[in-house]
Specification:
Chain lengths: ~110, ~120
Amino acid sequence: EAGVAQSPRYKIIEKRQSVAFWCNPISGHATLYWYQQILGQGPKLLIQFQNNGVVDDSQLPKDRFSAERLKGVDSTLKIQPAKLEDSAVYLCASSLSRANIQYFGAGTRLSVL
Amino acid sequence: GESVGLHLPTLSVQEGDNSIINCAYSNSASDYFIWYKQESGKGPQFIIDIRSNMDKRQGQRVTVLLNKTVKHLSLQIAATQPGDSAVYFCAENRSPGGSGGGADGLTFGKGTHLIIQP
């Protein structure tokens, strides 16, 4: 069974530029999560989708971050404009349904210069 | 502050010995706990989970213990191998999810780096 796919693996941008990350969850998984992991810390939830609807985006900095899952499968996370403190690994996870085990992708490492 | 944390940032053990990684949580309403292993350059990998109606659960070479009285969680790895070298995170979920509303995002601690000495 294929795991959670994320791209790109690495991205380097300058501050104030925009960037987008893509996630393809495990086939059949209805729930999708985006986490931010700053170096030396545990992942922190940004947003949770159930199919194409948002369940929780309370920790998403909505002035610069946005995410969508229009068809309830793939998802994109966008940052515009990026700040230095956005440098982190952005992890996507999916689960069969809510309250099931979350499986993570390898992440996208973002460096903002 | 964070409700889930780990006591030690680094744990060094001899190959073949047993490892015990500890975790404390502060929210007594938490009802689901998970241990993840994260190797360098990879995403967290599920190891084992436990619900609050249990106090022990065993997997292959791993055991998770939950002490709700003192809000403490531990991961025991038997006969530690070089491939066990990684950062280990405990995580909690405060919501049962499902149709009851609320979110299911995990709250992670900072992690413990397990180092295996040959």
